[in-house]
Amino acid sequence: MNPVLFDTLICTDGRLLAVATLNGEARLNALDLPMIRALHAQLDLWSQDQRIACVILRGAGNKAFCAGGDVRSLRAALIENPQPCPHPLASSYFAEEYALDYCIHTFAKPLIVWGHGIVMGGGLGLLVGASHRILTPASRIAMPEITIGLYPDVGASWFLPRLPARLGLFLALSGVGLNAVDALHANLADHILAQDAYPALLEGLAALHWRADPRQHHEQISALISAMETDVPLPGQLMRHFDTLRRMMQHGSLDQVCDGILQADFDDPWLQQAQRGLAQGCPTTAALSWEIFRRSQGLSLAQALRMELILSVNICARPDFSEGVRALLVDKDRQPRWCRQREQIDHDWIDSHFISPWSAAQHPLAQLGNTP
Length: 372
Description:
By secondary structure, the protein is an alpha/beta fold. The protein has 17 helices and 9 strands.
């Protein structure tokens, strides 16, 4: 089975629409290495093809755009074939995933993501970098890495700190889900279209008379999608609780922020869900998320992704990631045994996650952002 399905549609004026479909419906289009490699290679080809006016990325099926990385397969490889840090598969998987994310962020042509259904973790990494990010009322977004002992990666160390009032840190600490309206408020998406609007979107794009200047193609697509939007009666949680979250997240230390969330007497189900996410989540992930926000100030996207690769291979060499995936996705007992509790975490433990196993020149993403 092809990991990604590729197709082109002829427009009225002879240009082409390129469509990539993540082809893993049974596993909610979770990203594995063959999928990452196929998509990146095809995007490189389409970027050079003058006939391609724009690219559309979507997921197979009706449940998910992409539920994240294929962490179950990664965990299995880590257990079956232990290696010194950096584990070869972990290094390859995360380096190539982050390079794909960077490709999408910097893609010169319009790149539309149809983010219907579940959009989590690695799926959000694909969505956020697109030029036109479309959700539907059924879209559900989250960075739930705290539940598996990882941390919000795929460029989240760059885009989450850009949310106002440290809301990105709240999402990292809680793993709480967002709906489509929340995503618009958080600048994680641009448009909400009806769930059944995808065929009409393709038809509208195919009917466009693309302007001679490719720089104007983005504007044409934005105008088309905006004309298709309708009012979406979804209650947004982020803006509803903005003042509460802002006050909680402005405390001066991680312990104060965590205590403020965990000790609050919430009567709102969404806030209660966030509270449970922090209470049950990996304490090291929470501490790493706090430190990532401190260290990421002023970093470019390429620098942030290089930092994330160091973190990810180091985390794979420690027990919490494998244990978190076991508890949530393998045995599904939801009883992870984290290697350290909050009171056992010190600066040396967190700092050790940021020590690169490579020299600067040998870093797999050393050239990211440096090519013409």
